[in-house]
Amino acid sequence: MAVVEMMGVSLVGPREEIEPVAAELLSLGNFEPAPPDFAMGKHPGSTGGARIATFRGNPYDELLNSLRAVWKMIPDEETPERGTPAGRGASAGVSPQPPSESLCDRVCPSFSFEEASKKVKELQAKLALWRERSEVLEEEREKLMAAGAFLEALEAAERGVEQTLKTRYLSVTFGRLNAENYKRLEEMADVTPLLVYPAVAEKGYVLAVIFCSRDYHPEAEKIFRTLYLKEYFLNDVFEGAGTAMRERLRERLSRSERALRALREAPRNYLEKHRSELEKLYCSVFSMQRVYALCQHRGELGGIFILSGLIPAPTLPEVEAALEKFGPNTLLLTERDKELEKRGRRLPTLLKNNFPARTFQEIVALYSLPSYNEMDPSPLVALSFCLFFGFMFGDVGHGFLLAAGAWFLARKGVLKPAFASVIRIAGFSAMLFGFLYGSIFGSEEILPSLWTSPMHGIDDLIRTSLFVGVGFLSLGILINIIAMRRKGRIGKMLFDGEGVAGLLFYWCAAAAGAIAFTSDSGVPAALSAALGVLFLVILFSSSLERILFGPPEGGEEGAVVHTFTVFHALLSFLSNTASFVRLAAFALNHAGLSAAVFMLSDMVHSLPGGALFRAAVLLLGNAVIVGLEGLIVFIQTLRLEYYEFFSKFYEGGGSPFRPVTWQGRQ
Amino acid sequence: MAFLSAGERAAVTAKARIFRGRLLSPSDYLRLLECGTVGDIAVYLSRTPAYEAYFQRIPHPEQLHRGDLEGTISTAPMLEELPFCHYLGPERTALLRAWGERFDVDVVKRVLRMITTGVGNRDALRRRVASVPITLADGEKLLEARTLRDVQEAIRGYPLEKVLTEPLKQAERQSGAPGQGGFPNLFRAKMAMDTFFLTRILSEGGRLPGSEGRGVRRIFGTRADLINLYWIYRGRRFFAMTPEEALGMTLPVRYKLNFEALSAFAFAPDVPAMMKLMRESRYRVSFTPGGDSGAGRPPVFREGPPGRGEEVEVSEMTLEHNLYRILWRMASSVFASGSSGVHVALAYLTLRELEVKDLFTIIEDVRYQYDKKKAREFLIHPGANSFTAGEGGDAAWQSSR
Q: Is B249 touching A (CB cutoff 8 A)?
């Protein structure tokens, strides 16, 4: 049950040492930065009135983003449009990736910030130049292709180029627009003196030839602008081309495409040629970005830096060793958790548990992380989750399938590893209970039951589930008593409905209930009297606390509210205990479903091909039981944990400890 | 499969109705207008169910500047699309994503504005994109873009490429080579993006059957009609566009105003003739002086020269306000119809968007200490300006002044 003790540290030293110290802290991965007033709050006036310069933002963020963007600008192979079905399914092509950040050496940078910025800018300028040249070539290629399409359209209409382009009264416009805008152009043609002819329609674009009178051409151009028509001026393409127009076009196109290909390869070739230098630059910038992610909350006063944060207390020797090596002139100030809390600092929670409890931390975190001073319930959840799940799902075969399924899904990446571990362990628990019930794949005939079977021993199951319920609820209240003791709320601990008085009331009520149901003599008078007295103590708990221990911090709730709270708490003992009967109910449900599957398989056995049907029913039936009932039992277990158990003692609301590491905030 | 979608439709409708219950009430608007500073507005909003979640990471809302406050609340209509997606299958999720893409378009517009004006907060945009990644462009390249060419690079291979490449190139050509002075006019680029959004959402919505498809067409078809009407109006009235230009600017999607109607507006002989035609259209309430005075009573339009209290011209601000009011009523009527489906979620998101617009108006009014009574009249929510109610207790439409 380990919430790791935290400790506040402040590092004060010469500016030159901040980077190596921060780099070492990143490697240790145990430092969560805090604003400089974290430390200064303890030592007000220590700066003698001088203003500490604080910083916002990380100067290397933009540089790193620019560098990543530069890498992305290096083109990959042609891919379909993203967002289309083809695009979604297509691979991204072979595009160069920035170096893996986990391999970037944690070394002092090879370049200063200014040098790195200059190099990145140079790189950006180079890429921009290549891109501009590519664009010019692409425009030319597009134009040549459009000219080819125009030529084909004219040939289909049995018209010559010169005949079409050099007209006296007619204006001919040839251009490209997307399909949507082409539809709009067609609509406009109904209300304007335009004649529109689509030459080629492909890939969402239309190459169109538009005729209008020369007088109308200026107006037509306005329409073309609103429709984003990209006009191709083809006179220069066809000038003097003569009869070998097609061949000349083809030749020009091929030259253009070759040049374009070469230009597209240029960034890649540059990257390959200068790969090690560029990777070094990237790693340098990345390292410094991480260093300043840790330092961005630092303060500076003259040439001195102040860096505050939180570390797990057991790692203090490592931090001291790091400072000795990398920051010999840096001072380390520490502050214990109690002092931090006295100053109103909220401490993050770091859990440290062994394997089974660690697995169930996810279940606890689903509800809420424990706050710093709270007990970590993960080990208890590990125990209770297995118990409840196994109780309700006890079957050797189904438990095995569940565990195997979880393992398989985790391997395929469908389930998160932690969640898969929970289900695997739950599966093993179900197998264990399967042996206790003597149930394997729903049959209670094959294995002998080591304890009882759900179908025949329902009374035992109900009794046991109630006993388990009383036990766990009592455990919850005990934990609450300990928590209140730690907080110093002695009065509440003794007299509250979820304190000692409440626990005794619950036990007395449970005993009274047990006697009433099992004995003919009725509840003993002493027990009833004890119940009455305890009820009154609980009802007047706030008054008793005030009289004996003084008014509590934070004030008291009003009398009416308190009365209803008490009634609610006491009634909830009954409802919460009764809720545990679901353990028996779902165990019976599981057995009943299995029996139904067997009955169904027996019914179909008499049909033609009965053996096949029977096998199918058994397979499908067991799959439904494992899937559907497994899900239901999982939900019921969570409910028992979160509502019945946690409601007795658990508050949660903790914030996770998030140290800055080389990979980012954990 | 219709009965399988019944669960999706019921779930999303229930959620939309619950969310609608959290929208600001008229009394909230009153109190917001009474605030003294932008910080007071932020504090008030941080305590409302509708906006408290957006202020959770802001420890001191009273210290927020206008830009930060607007940035915070403007994400609401975008982020609230996400919870609905959990209940929906792929078809309806695609429709909601199409709504969300409008805000991706907004990110692109902001980047363009930053490039052309040099003003803007790139970090704030990064944070926004980090919380809801954009799908219409390469987010990283877009946020690093410093020139229009960079933006073109960022949209390469994405759905925006087809609609935006040419307008950006046109804008670049108009301003000359990048970095050599001259501000590119991005009006057409922005129009192209708005066109893209509406076309997309109507195309996704059109695939839905029954009342859902009808509902989507109603909400966004009305929006398209109003945009077409407004653009023709502005183009002819303020920019002296030719009829062809004005008509060419309209969206390729139409609802109740078909091409013939729009052509009639655009090719009207002059502006008064155009206004007359617009006042006779189904959206006449935007232009009619005197206002919508209650259910069932059409506005009066007199022949002949303008009489007392009747003016031909409507100020642009009031017209814009009236158009939003039409949209508000359209979205509210979807809830009143009792139908269920994803269109109810879209109606809610529309109301949310309009609420954010009202909040922007209130923020400006408070900043500039505008007359509160006058300020109320420019709010879209009819209940918020009910102090100017006409007969029947309903809020009066903005008339000419």
A: yes
